[in-house]
Amino acid sequence: MTLTELANPSRFLALAGRILPWLVAATALVLLIGLYQSATAPDDYQQGATVKIMFIHVPNAWLSMFVWGVMSVAALGTLVWRHPLADVAQKAAAPIGAAFTFLALVTGSLWGRPMWGTYWQWDARLTSVLILFLMYLGLMALWRAVDDPSRAARAAAVLTLVGAINIPIIKFSVDWWNTLHQPASVFRMGGSTLDRAFLIPLLVMAVGFTLLFLTLHIAAMRNEILRRRVRTLQMLQASTSAV
Amino acid sequence: MSLGPYATFIVTSYALVTAVVAALIVWVIVDYRRQKARLHDLEASGVVRRSGRSAVDAS
Description:
The structure holds two protein chains of two kinds.
Chain A: H1 3-6, H2 9-40, H3 54-81, H4 86-116, H5 124-145, H6 149-163, H7 166-176, H8 196-242
Helix pairs in contact in A: 2-8, 3-4, 3-6, 3-8, 4-5, 4-6, 4-8, 5-6, 5-7
Chain B: H1 7-44
């Protein structure tokens, strides 16, 4: 099946119906394995058991940026190729990305209090992630503010691409500025600094949360296609009753 | 499994993630059912797509 064929909403609905049960099962399985490994991981010699917060904080933080990346590709699809599913993908991803960003902020805060002695610090990493969260909310508000989905899609696509500038700022903030937040310890030059006892549960949880995003995103895209069909039929109903 | 002196922070973190993920799952399920019900209602009132195919069905 080519990308052009998949761009047909009816074909996408049929495909979503077939793959969603498998994705749900895979997500549940990987997350259960990840949770078991997180629960049985040893305490860190400095952080003690609070290291367990890392297994949920880091996947959410990664996904907060990954989802914006997905939305940026979809925004290009809207503006450049006018792909029929691009703005559907973009709109459906925003609330999920906002939820992951919210969780990254709050779990980071709950991890920071015992480790740093504070819930919040206006350092470059924390502030740039807060800006990302506010941008997600702004994007969701924009979708709600404009009635016509195609007009809203173009405005949202421009905002998404402008907001994408924040992603490298978040990623490299710990290198460019002196921050309370620790520098990268998994994806870095010279390899991960994490011991395998922590790295494996972390990667399993990251795969599990990525599958969760994929599942929720496809389900939310299906809902958005149906919502647009409702809108089309309502307009058709209004036009026929007006004649 | 002992969570040490900071158990509250760990348990709160996991509980919060569980709650938000559960809310997302409920949101997509409820929204799906709502859109399908609205489409059924519209089709039952005689409004059909230009193609003539059902808007609820996948194809």
